[in-house]
Write a structure and sequence with these properties.
Blueprint: H1 2-18, H2 32-76, E1 79-81, H3 94-106, E2 112-117, H4 124-144, E3 152-158, H5 169-175, E4 177-181
Parallel strand pairs: 2-3
Antiparallel strand pairs: 1-4, 2-4
Helix pairs in contact: 3-4
Length: 185
């Protein structure tokens, strides 16, 4: 049995050694038509490169416009609101905070001032303290979202800068806020 297997292996080995290698095809010499097509092909490649660069430039312009649109949308919602006598950032404003934090994290040279405000109820001293706590808690939320501590300044205006001057809850709720102000630096 061993002799039979050994014989089959030897025959396969001899058959493999005795086979002819594949023949390579000889290349035909270049014709004058092929030589004249080379500059046309090079010109087409250059045109393709120009089109590719134009596409890259267009994409860069689109990206810049998208960034500008994102910043504009971000600036539209730059206030977070608080219930009466509360200084903790509310869940309803977490998305606003995170959007500003992500912007600040991706733009380390940007700086903001968080301005804390209160409604007219309470003493001036109490409202200044409440506005400062609101500003500091908003800053803390921005830092937790990725912004740098050095990018954010806080100030309290208490009841000094109301957004609405009527004497009702609808108006007071607009005045209980912290504003994220990019232009006041």
């Amino acid at each position: 049995m061993k002799k039979l297997i050994l014989s089959v292996l030897l025959l396969n080995l001899l058959a493999a050694c005795g086979s002819n290698p594949p023949k390579e095809e000889a290349m035909a010499p270049a014709t004058s038509a092929a030589v004249s097509e080379a500059p046309a092909a090079a010109a087409a490649a250059d045109a393709t490169a120009v089109d590719a660069q134009a596409a890259v430039d267009a994409q860069a312009a689109a990206d810049a416009q998208a960034a500008a649109d994102a910043k504009a949308a971000l600036m539209e919602k730059n206030s977070v609101y608080f219930p009466f006598d509360v200084d903790a950032v509310q869940d309803a404003d977490r998305e606003t905070i995170m959007n500003h934090a992500e912007y600040l994290a991706s733009h380390p040279d940007a700086k903001v001032r968080v301005e804390g405000n209160a409604d007219e109820r309470g003493s001036s001293e109490y409202n200044l303290g409440l506005g400062q706590r609101r500003a500091k808690n908003t800053k803390r939320a921005l830092v937790l979202g990725g912004a740098s501590d050095s990018q954010i300044e806080t100030v309290s205006y208490g009841e000094e800068k109301p957004r609405c001057s009527e004497h009702n809850e609808a108006c007071w709720s607009q005045n209980r806020r912290a504003d994220i102000n990019y232009s006041a630096q």
